[in-house]
Amino acid sequence: MAFFRITAVTLAETQKLCVPACVRGLNAQSTDLKAVLLDKIPKEQKKVKEFRQKHGEKKVGEVSVNMMYGGMRGIKGLIWETSVLDPDEGIRFRGMTIPECQKQLPKAPGGEEPLPEGLFWLLVTGDVPSEMQTTALSKEWAARAELPAHVVSMLNNMPNKLHPMSQFSAAVTALNSESTFVKAYTEGVHKSKYWEYVYEDSMNLIAKLPVVAATIYRNMYRDGKGIGAIDDNKDWSANYCSMLGFDNQEFTELMRLYLTIHSDHEGGNVSAHTTHLVGSALSDPYLSFAAGLNGLAGPLHGLANQEVLVWLEKLRKQVGDNFTEEGLKEFIWKTLKSGQVVPGYGHAVLRKTDPRYTCQREFALKHLPNDPLFKLVAAVYKVVPPILTELGKVKNPWPNVDSHSGVLLQYYGLKEMNYYTVMFGVSRALGVLAQQIWSRALGFPIERPKSLSTAALIKQFGA
Length: 463
Description:
Layout: H1 2-17, H2 33-55, H3 65-69, E1 83-86, E2 90-93, H4 98-104, H5 116-125, H6 131-143, H7 149-156, H8 164-174, H9 180-186, H10 194-221, H11 236-244, H12 249-261, H13 270-280, H14 285-296, H15 304-319, H16 325-337, H17 355-367, H18 372-391, H19 405-411, H20 420-441, H21 454-460
Antiparallel strand pairs: 1-2
């Protein structure tokens, strides 16, 4: 167990050192992602084995009673290869910050934001892909996107009163019928081959998610009108937007950014950890990700962007569009004194403005600087941090990603707030499934931490 704790720290340090030298590997010409992994995985397995042999018994940190009662907050106990969250810098995807990803990852022809396909290649391999490799991945996902008939029938018969996230996780669970991992495991495949079947399942699932998500949207909010066919000349985001019924090029660029930045946030958050935990029992990627989606649906996790919008609308109703700073402060203090929080502010790990917030703010400044709701968000950004700092009880008074994403979706006409977490889920699959491939490649065991009762802790400390 010591190994699993120590590498979480080591990884954070080494990832900062490996940019840009490590972002291009020897497989720069191959457009076959699986072939690239076949070359990389044995080398990584050897590196991990040698590291464990040398450092496996070393200790990192201590666990306090408050950590145990506080939701395991701050305990270093997971391996998450794809990203590390730094309290001051924010998220790094395989060592790369969001601005670095925006600059270096391939874009669509004439586009301005990175393609999620490129981010997935980076998460899986550690290499920045070429445009050719990214295009190949777009085409492969388009080729794998068709849903089985029973899942289409299931989605079309879901009652409209069922929440979109409930429909989403149910459909992903039903896709388990297509699992190549389940078939191979049942037939007795050697454990060294597990990752290959998890890879196939992950690729198929990621390809199908926009189709599932768009079908739910059309059924609930567009009178069940068909989503149309997948276009293998379009990228993953562009196909998703078309199926939703949004053909605005700016909205497509926003979705490319949205699906990239929401993809991964290291392994300790609820959706990532849940997917990882369920996968450690050798549940296939469909069942694992469905479990993660159910965690994402909680108001303290993926549902938070919806909570922000509800609060903003209440604020806007009171202060209007010609608001004053004093009016904003009065409403915010009223919120706090009533025992509520300002939604979208603070983060369990971050101690600065979330870089995911910042890049969305930059998008808004470029494309919708005069939108009244964006102006309100920008003004709240100036007012809230000093108030929270004055309270003295908040470790991070700065906004997180949820403070901004819903505002942008509202501007482009996607106003159905209940659906927003589904889009978050489509994106989150990229990170958690990339990690699941590596979890099986490195032979991670079933996750089983030790738990204690309050009585046992009292006895231990002689209280």
